[in-house]
């Protein structure tokens, strides 16, 4: 389950004056203006779509032509400051036609001399879709069609071929001869090479199920057989006779697709299957080409996802060697969606060593191994977590990483030698730093903000020398001088059972500490996520609620990452329990503040936040009499295998945990005023969840209000109009119960 980003829309803000502190501060005339202000508060983020090219000597970024508004790809040289145009669509047509060229996305070839464009994109799942692929040469400015109707495509490292997957088989196109060659012939109704099923793509974070070898001789690929997976069907109920979209998605306890790894020689077409020797149901979440020729690393996880094995394969013979095993009493992660980390294991191309991010000592740290599987050393130590490896320099034996050493609320960049010596902090400004480092670890872009500082974008040398400020967002600072704004503040407390919890609070505009205000918990809470940071608050929705007289609260509840594995993994087998407890403890803490009206408290959230909303209201009705839950899980047995079993274990191992964590099973405890929001095309949290929850509530004699937005996917909104309406419905529902003369009433307990 992945957190959804709110929708913000840019436009002119027309505000009304407010007298505060002797100065006139302009207020929002309506919610739309508040949402537009969110874009203003976010400010300019500097270069977009950054790709480091030419071995990290320059980076490309996307822009718009100032005159025509058409897309432009530019390149910037950090050493000289020179900025040049590499590609513009003006005057470019689709090959063999007069139709102006347009594209949906692009990737650089490894030679930095070609661009691979995707056009005519038709989405399938969250990350995947069907596209036509075109190759553009920077040298002669030529554009050629490489293939049509492919799901993924990538230029070979030597730039001679485009590899692609189409209709469940692997192909290459020779760019010099324009000849297409089919490499695999396995595609059938339930068998496919080179792309994933729904659950692998969603929960392991990849769309492309194949990889070129570094020397362009081989393609390694996943093959899936989903014949054992059950089928769901969803519809938006449009037309006279609705059509059904059918998807193979396994829910808890169902059979998953079987997976195996193949390696095909692109020259000879010879295929080798790599047998891991694993028995029963297991996952292959990652494969990596190593720096050793013809050697592929393959990671397996058992179904419970608490035993990881790393194998090295000789792709010429299929011979394997088990390199390492890692086990956990809870779960193991191979990537981190929330931190934007695709790989917890990395194989530098210039050494016969690899790095593994593990929380085996209680905090997430970096471990260094050689290719025999021997642990050379633990690189980082301390009661803090390494959140991302940003880059490495084998010649200098130095790795660059961001961590929580300064605070779990901040991200700072550090360097350290491979042997764990000479640690050095590079970024110094307080706040949350997002780093984009060149592959040679020579330069990096730093985007950061803090509670008191809007986003800053700077270019640095990895040595620690600031080269230039790219964006200081002076316009945001100037806007704040004339417009009403309530900054986020951090608070911390210790729960009754001894847990340290950090929270954020945004106070009403204007704020009078002698008055009492209603409170809205706007939460998410899912395992591995983090809500509260030392970052500049930019949400227009939050600012609107503050202007409407609400206190808006967030919390880093137990289950949150970056406070140590004990804090995060206490939720294992008991999703909902500690999240709800910490929201309740936060409510009790705030009730002691003189400006809080503890009888007028609401809790709202989407996705996991929707689940947390319903479950918390059931467990603590006296603290949360009002809630709005969007796309909420009603029972974890209705959610997908990989996500749920990672955190809840297998059904036959934890049936009582599944029952206790299910809002459907606890429906009789619902005493508050609940609004449920869902769509009918939600392939993530299926509408089945809300429908079964409504039945359970009804059977228990409990009422709830419902809003259905049929065409929407996960999060319910399907366009700007529906997103706006959902916000208005939520705002009106909160006002109905939190702004009335008497506090919201509860149904009688049972």
Total of helices? 11
Please report the total strand number as a whole number: 45
Task: Name the poorly predicted regions.
Answer: 4-21
Average pLDDT, rounded to a whole number, is 95
First and last CA, distance = 32 Å
How would you describe the shape?
A: globular
**Rg value:** 27 Å
Structural commentary:
The protein is of the alpha+beta class. It is 15% helix and 37% strand. It contains 11 helices and 45 strands. It has an 8-stranded mixed β-sheet with strand order 38-39-41-40-42-43-44-45, with helices on both faces. Strands 15, 16, 17, 20 and 21 form a 5-stranded antiparallel β-sheet that branches. Strands 3-4-5-6 form a 4-stranded antiparallel β-sheet, with no helix packed on it. α1 (31-42) crosses α4 (540-547) and α6 packs across α7 (608-619). The longest helix is centred in the last third of the chain and has 19 residues, at 720-738. It is globular. It starts with 14 loop residues before the first strand and ends in a 12-residue tail after the last helix. Residues 4-21 have low confidence and may be disordered.
């Amino acid at each position: 389950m992945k957190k959804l980003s709110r929708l913000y829309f840019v436009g002119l803000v027309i505000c009304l004056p407010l007298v505060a502190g002797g100065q006139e501060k302009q207020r929002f005339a309506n919610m739309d203006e508040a949402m537009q202000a969110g874009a203003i508060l976010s400010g300019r983020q500097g270069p977009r779509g950054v790709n480091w090219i030419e071995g990290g000597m320059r980076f490309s970024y996307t822009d718009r032509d100032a005159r025509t508004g058409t897309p432009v790809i530019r390149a910037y040289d950090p050493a000289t400051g020179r900025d040049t145009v590499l590609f513009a669509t003006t005057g470019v047509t689709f090959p063999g036609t007069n139709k102006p060229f347009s594209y949906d996305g692009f990737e650089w070839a490894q030679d930095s001399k070609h661009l691979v464009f995707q056009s005519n994109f038709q989405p399938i799942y969250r990350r995947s879709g069907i596209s036509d692929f075109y190759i553009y040469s920077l040298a002669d400015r030529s554009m050629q069609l490489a293939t049509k109707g492919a799901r993924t495509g990538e230029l070979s490292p030597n730039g001679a071929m485009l590899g692609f997957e189409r209709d469940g088989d692997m192909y290459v196109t020779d760019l010099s001869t324009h000849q297409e060659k089919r490499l695999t012939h396995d595609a059938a109704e339930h068998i496919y090479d080179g792309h994933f099923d729904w659950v692998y793509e969603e929960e392991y974070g990849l769309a492309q199920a194949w990889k070129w070898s570094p020397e362009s001789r081989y393609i390694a690929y996943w093959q899936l057989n989903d014949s054992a997976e059950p089928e769901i069907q969803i519809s938006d109920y449009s037309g006279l006779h609705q059509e059904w979209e059918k998807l193979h998605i396994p829910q808890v306890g169902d059979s998953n697709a079987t997976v195996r790894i193949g390696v095909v020689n692109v020259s000879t077409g010879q295929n080798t299957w790599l047998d891991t020797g694993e028995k029963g149901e297991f996952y292959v979440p990652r494969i990596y080409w190593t720096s050793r020729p013809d050697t592929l690393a393959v990671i397996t996880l058992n179904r419970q996802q608490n035993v990881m094995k790393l194998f090295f394969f000789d792709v010429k013979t299929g011979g394997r060697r088990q390199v390492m095993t890692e086990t956990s009493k809870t779960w193991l992660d191979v990537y981190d969606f929330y931190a934007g980390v695709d790989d917890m294991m990395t194989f530098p191309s210039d050494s016969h060593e690899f790095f593994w991010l593990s929380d085996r000592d209680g905090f997430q740290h970096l471990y260094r191994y050689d290719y025999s599987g021997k642990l050379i050393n633990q690189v980082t130590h301390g009661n803090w977590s390494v959140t991302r490896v940003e880059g490495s320099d084998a010649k200098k034996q130095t790795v660059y990483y961001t961590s929580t050493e300064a605070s779990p609320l901040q991200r700072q960049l550090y360097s350290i030698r491979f042997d764990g010596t000479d640690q050095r902090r590079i970024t110094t400004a307080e706040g949350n730093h997002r780093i984009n480092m060149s592959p040679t670890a020579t330069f990096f872009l730093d985007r950061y903000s803090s509670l008191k500082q809007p986003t800053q974008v700077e270019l640095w040398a990895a040595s620690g020398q600031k080269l230039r400020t790219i964006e200081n967002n002076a316009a945001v600072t100037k806007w704040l001088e004339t417009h009403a704004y309530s900054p986020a503040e951090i608070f911390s407390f210790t729960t009754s059972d001894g847990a340290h919890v950090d929270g954020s609070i945004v106070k009403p505009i204007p704020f009078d500490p002698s008055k009492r205000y209603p409170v809205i918990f706007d939460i998410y809470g899912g395992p591995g996520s983090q809500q509260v940071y030392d970052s500049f608050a930019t949400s227009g929705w939050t600012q609107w609620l503050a202007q409407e007289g609400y206190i808006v609260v967030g919390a880093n509840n137990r289950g949150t990452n970056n406070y140590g594995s004990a804090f995060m993994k206490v939720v294992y087998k008991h999703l909902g329990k500690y999240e709800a407890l910490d929201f309740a403890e936060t409510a009790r803490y705030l009730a002691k503040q003189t400006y809080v009206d503890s009888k007028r408290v609401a809790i709202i959230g989407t996705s996991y936040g929707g689940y947390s909303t319903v479950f918390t209201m059931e467990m603590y009705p006296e603290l949360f009499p009002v809630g709005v839950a969007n796309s909420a899980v009603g029972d974890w047995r209705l959610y997908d295998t990989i996500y749920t079993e990672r955190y809840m274990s297998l059904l036959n191992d934890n049936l009582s945990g599944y029952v206790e964590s299910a809002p459907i099973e606890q429906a009789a405890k619902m005493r508050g005023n609940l609004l449920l929001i869902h769509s009918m095309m939600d392939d993530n949290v299926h509408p089945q969840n809300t429908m079964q929850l409504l039945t359970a509530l009804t059977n228990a004699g409990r009422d709830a209000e419902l809003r259905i937005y049929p065409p929407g996917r996960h999060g319910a909104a399907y366009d700007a109009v529906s997103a706006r309406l959902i916000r208005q419905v939520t705002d009106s529902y909160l006002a109905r119960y939190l702004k009335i003369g008497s506090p919201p009433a509860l149904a009688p307990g049972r």
